[in-house]
Amino acid sequence: MPKLQEGTPVLPGALENPEECRSAADVLSRIGDRWSVLVVRELGKGPMRFGALRRGLGGISQRMLTLTLRNLERDGLLTRTAFHGNQPHVEYALTPLGRSLLEVVGALADWARRNRNAIEAARTNFDGRAGEAHADDGAKEVSG
Length: 144
Known about the structure:
Number of strands: 3
Strand content: 5-15%
CATH topology: Arc Repressor Mutant, subunit A
CATH class: Mainly Alpha
Radius of gyration: 22 Å
CATH architecture: Orthogonal Bundle
Low-confidence stretches: none
Mean pLDDT: 85
Structural class: mainly alpha
């Protein structure tokens, strides 16, 4: 397998189609924000009204939930249905595309759970080395 740099394997064909990389980056920027994946996960339980969704998420502002829902609707991951009558309300539900994202999110969550300890160890190791490097830099500046 080719490598970009030492220790960074590149999947065969990964660099051959930059458009696919841009598409993946675009999707990851949407689902990589703080709330989108949590909204998709919550709607995986079934259609919900705005208030129930907000309570289920906890800690999200009304404005942020509104923006997140609009973006997910724009991307085709959920639908917004207005009900008219005695008690008008709006419900949000995942589309088939949104439900397919649940599988990916579930796989990512499983991966994160399995690798949590290794990631924390790597962070601790890095932070320790980074602190030493900064201490060395300061010592060089003082003595140089």
